[in-house]
Amino acid sequence: MEEYNPGDEVAFNADEVNTSIKECVEGVIGGTDYNQNKVNQWTASIVEHSLTHLVKQGRPFKYIVNCAIMQKSGAGLHTANSCYWDTTTDGSCTARWENRTMYCVVSVFAVAVTL
Questions:
Q1: Which residue ranges does UniProt annotate as crossing the membrane (predicted)?
Q2: pTM of the model
């Protein structure tokens, strides 16, 4: 990801964030099988790693990161988000990751901080 420089136009790059989030998820749960006893640890770790990576960019945003992990069992999982904000600067993205035993859905919301 590119580092933010003051004076740059403030705009949320969903594609960049999506790639970054998937890398964080892969790093935390990569090739492991679903384990109910580790889900709380995994979700906390994914959220913390993602948030740390986003903040390190130094871009003028406040971030909200949400993570859900679900065991593959044939059941459906539907999510939706809605935001009321400045669409020219603020943004969100949802990254979906899966392996043979589980799904992971991470949503990131970024609200620009204007100084």
A1: none
A2: 0.88
